[in-house]
């Protein structure tokens, strides 16, 4: 019945069902929808209908719904439910999602909510929150089924049927021995294809690739991407403690890329379309004020060369071009290094090769652009010496700019600092200063010929 | 036996087995490894051993191996195999991987290779290559099993056993009716949990979310990310023609983010650590040369104000600061818009809200930075008028810079042009020009007071 409906028709349909109190019809509609869509409708209906919305669906559905809501609606919904029911819902939520919801709450509020949960579930969530941010421990879930290596296929299927609700999204079964050590993996497909009496240890794949709870999330993403896995097991001293699933990894990849872009463009942390103006301004200001002072440094450099500049005012015409191009060439190199480091580890040899490559790139673009601008300057201002000064300055600044954009992030990487922190604007500004020095230095050297 | 080996030990072990011709031992070793690791070892051993390597493994393993190799090694391996065996291998490869391998070949070479394949497989690959780049059609594979809606669970399991090799990585089974229309989906887990005699149509989930072959890959990624799917079906007029799997989507997300960064930083298309220096230089030059000419435009503007500048040389001191900050504030806004558009569609209302928000941000940062620089200029140069000129120029340029960085990508988005094309440097340079106009315009206005 709801097949052909557009999103707004569906929303109206649901509001109508809520108003008329048709619980059965309402549940039938909800059954046909994905959690993301249910959450979207829940968020868009008038607030007064939301309580009945929650009353009309079961705890599993509430758990799925809450996982897809925005932070403030999550709290609102949990509060509406009351401590007992919210505990039941939280028991059913993915613990990684629950952990990232709880960590934004005050300690009191968090403990209140945790108190409604089953003891063991509450402990698992609290354990997850103890792992450092951006590690496998924070992403992992315990919603998976483990099996023992001596099980037969028949026993395995029995266990699967018992734990059906726990194995919802996972497509591998991890195999443990009597010490709970991870010893193998089988897929659902293997189970379907195998004979009922075969033993798991005979059909399992035993060279399992796993991570530890403190493995960085970028490394986890790299492994899942490399091996095309749907999930990867997390072990602690050989003992299986959880799994990280591919859907979390997609979110990691997106947020890591966004972070890189934020840093490269110094656009401020976590600003999206919904961020309030004063918050966005507050997050961007630190960088802009730093930039302002660095700009004053540039100004001081120029003021040192005031005499040169007032003697040959035409020098000012080429200032933005030289500073702009040097800054840009640095950002170009920086972007190549930062993105390259995502998919690849860099040793001393690779770093040396890269620096040498960028040196050559700098020389090539330096000479081409330098000669071009020298000719333009000669034609425009009719001075060969000015052409020489501008052209040779540009060659030098482009080579230095390229190298700075390559070497600085590599040094940061070696020091285990995120190379993207050497954001585009920082490199740009550094290169600005260097280029002004070189340009006015050259000009002062040739001042007699320029006059 | 190979459990505890490091990568280089493993490589030596494999070379030894190849030299000694121990085919059985060699196969046992390979069986324990992931395709990615096998490919890494294959690539790192001396070229003379590679032929025997290929002889020692079966066609399925060769297919898996080739999918993980670099382009040049892929061709080398296919050539080594000879036309008949390479046809068998290509029949087994994922058609999307095969298509992206073939499209880099000359037409003759491609037809030669295709001629060794089974007719229907060869046709499927050629069909894929006919879809526009970066669409679902290019990413989809036909390595999946469909089932009919009237099948029982028992019949389904029978079919699965027959088509075992085709269903390797997929965890959903797509259900079609007698017209081959996609009507539902079930997971392997559903099959395991269901009773043998139940019918697929009774347990299947029928509100299937699907894409068409010409859906943009970013849209496909958005759906898979949103719904946490492991695969999404591709239909053509309702008929199921293939599926896109989550592992391809991770690659899409990474490459789209890299593209955004490349464009935002104008770092040149597809430059990685292995790109040759002259190629990298060639790819970066167009932008730099464009930037050079835009720089000349800036220069021309300054030259228009030569008289103002030579009267008050101190104006030059604040030039880099004003241009730099205006450029940067534009890039900040741009980055927020470009990343925001990835996870969200923007309608007229959202766009208006965003522009209004950024206007407020521009005003806040403009007034704070403007007043700050006015005070600095007053103290440093001892001129209240200079402070006023610099400060009020900065307020104006920061507001305009912020708006330009917001509105330009939104217009491009509306025109269906990739907003990231309004790369950071372009916005920066545009803002440079505008800021110079405003700054020198203001200065000329107050020239009598400045003298």
UniProtKB/TrEMBL annotation, chains A, B:
<dbReference type="Pfam" id="PF00571">
    <property type="entry name" value="CBS"/>
</dbReference>
<comment type="function">
    <text>Acts as a magnesium transporter.</text>
</comment>
<comment type="similarity">
    <text>Belongs to the SLC41A transporter family.</text>
</comment>
<keyword id="KW-0813">Transport</keyword>
<keyword id="KW-0460">Magnesium</keyword>
<feature type="domain" description="CBS">
    <location>
        <begin position="204"/>
        <end position="259"/>
    </location>
</feature>
<keyword id="KW-0479">Metal-binding</keyword>
<feature type="transmembrane region" description="Helical">
    <location>
        <begin position="359"/>
        <end position="380"/>
    </location>
</feature>
<dbReference type="Pfam" id="PF01769">
    <property type="entry name" value="MgtE"/>
</dbReference>
<dbReference type="InterPro" id="IPR036739">
    <property type="entry name" value="SLC41_membr_dom_sf"/>
</dbReference>
<dbReference type="Pfam" id="PF03448">
    <property type="entry name" value="MgtE_N"/>
</dbReference>
<feature type="transmembrane region" description="Helical">
    <location>
        <begin position="311"/>
        <end position="338"/>
    </location>
</feature>
<dbReference type="InterPro" id="IPR006668">
    <property type="entry name" value="Mg_transptr_MgtE_intracell_dom"/>
</dbReference>
<keyword id="KW-0472">Membrane</keyword>
<keyword id="KW-1133">Transmembrane helix</keyword>
<comment type="subunit">
    <text>Homodimer.</text>
</comment>
<dbReference type="GO" id="GO:0046872">
    <property type="term" value="F:metal ion binding"/>
</dbReference>
<dbReference type="InterPro" id="IPR006669">
    <property type="entry name" value="MgtE_transporter"/>
</dbReference>
<feature type="transmembrane region" description="Helical">
    <location>
        <begin position="285"/>
        <end position="305"/>
    </location>
</feature>
<dbReference type="InterPro" id="IPR038076">
    <property type="entry name" value="MgtE_N_sf"/>
</dbReference>
<keyword id="KW-1003">Cell membrane</keyword>
<dbReference type="InterPro" id="IPR006667">
    <property type="entry name" value="SLC41_membr_dom"/>
</dbReference>
<feature type="transmembrane region" description="Helical">
    <location>
        <begin position="386"/>
        <end position="413"/>
    </location>
</feature>
<dbReference type="GO" id="GO:0005886">
    <property type="term" value="C:plasma membrane"/>
</dbReference>
<dbReference type="InterPro" id="IPR046342">
    <property type="entry name" value="CBS_dom_sf"/>
</dbReference>
<feature type="domain" description="CBS">
    <location>
        <begin position="140"/>
        <end position="203"/>
    </location>
</feature>
<dbReference type="GO" id="GO:0015095">
    <property type="term" value="F:magnesium ion transmembrane transporter activity"/>
</dbReference>
<feature type="transmembrane region" description="Helical">
    <location>
        <begin position="425"/>
        <end position="447"/>
    </location>
</feature>
<dbReference type="InterPro" id="IPR000644">
    <property type="entry name" value="CBS_dom"/>
</dbReference>
<keyword id="KW-0812">Transmembrane</keyword>
<protein>
    <recommendedName>
        <fullName>Magnesium transporter MgtE</fullName>
    </recommendedName>
</protein>
<keyword id="KW-0129">CBS domain</keyword>
């Amino acid at each position: 019945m709801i097949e052909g409906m557009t999103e707004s028709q569906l929303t109206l349909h649901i509001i109508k069902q809520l108003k008329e109190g048709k619980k059965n019809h309402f549940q039938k509609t909800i059954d046909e929808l994905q959690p993301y869509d249910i959450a979207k409708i829940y968020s868009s209906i008038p607030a007064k209908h939301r309580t009945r919305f929650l009353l009309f669906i079961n705890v599993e559905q509430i758990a799925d719904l809450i996982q897809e809501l925005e932070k403030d609606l999550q709290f609102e919904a949990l509060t509406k439910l009351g401590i007992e029911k919210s505990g039941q819902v939280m028991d059913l939520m993915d613990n990684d999602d629950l952990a990232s919801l709880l960590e934004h709450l005050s300690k009191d509020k968090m403990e209140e909510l945790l108190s409604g949960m089953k003891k063991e579930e509450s402990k698992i969530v609290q354990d997850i929150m103890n792992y450092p941010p951006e590690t496998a421990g924070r992403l992992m879930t315990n919603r998976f089924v483990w099996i023992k290596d001596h099980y037969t296929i028949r026993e395995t299927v029995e266990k699967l049927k018992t734990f059906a609700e726990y194995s919802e999204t996972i497509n591998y079964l991890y195999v443990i021995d009597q010490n709970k050590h991870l010893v193998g993996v089988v897929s659902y497909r293997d189970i379907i294809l195998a004979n009922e009496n075969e033993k798991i240890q005979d059909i399992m794949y035993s060279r399992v690739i796993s991570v530890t709870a403190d493995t960085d999330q970028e490394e986890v993403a790299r492994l899942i991407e490399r091996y095309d896995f749907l999930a990867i097991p997390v072990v602690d001293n050989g003992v299986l403690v959880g799994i990280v699933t591919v859907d979390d990894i997609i979110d990691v990849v997106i947020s890591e890329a966004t972070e890189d872009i934020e840093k490269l463009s110094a656009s401020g942390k976590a600003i999206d379309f919904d961020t309030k103006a004063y918050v966005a301004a507050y997050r961007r200001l630190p960088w802009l004020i730093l930039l302002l002072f660095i700009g004053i440094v540039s100004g001081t450099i120029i003021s040192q060369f005031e005499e040169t500049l007032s003697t040959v005012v035409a020098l000012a015409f080429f200032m933005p071009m030289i500073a702009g191009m040097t800054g840009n060439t640095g950002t170009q190199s920086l972007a190549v290094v930062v993105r390259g480091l995502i998919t690849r580890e860099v040793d001393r040899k690779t770093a040396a090769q890269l620096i040498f490559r960028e040196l050559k790139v700098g020389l090539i673009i330096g000479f081409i652009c330098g000669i071009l601008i020298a000719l333009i300057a000669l034609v425009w201002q009719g001075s060969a010496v000015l052409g020489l000064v501008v052209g040779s300055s540009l060659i030098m600044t482009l080579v230095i700019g390229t190298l700075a954009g390559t070497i600085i992030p590599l040094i940061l990487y070696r020091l285990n600092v995120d190379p993207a922190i050497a954001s585009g604007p920082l490199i740009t500004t550094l290169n600005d200063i260097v280029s002004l020095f070189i340009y006015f230095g050259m000009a002062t050297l040739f001042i007699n010929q320029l006059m």
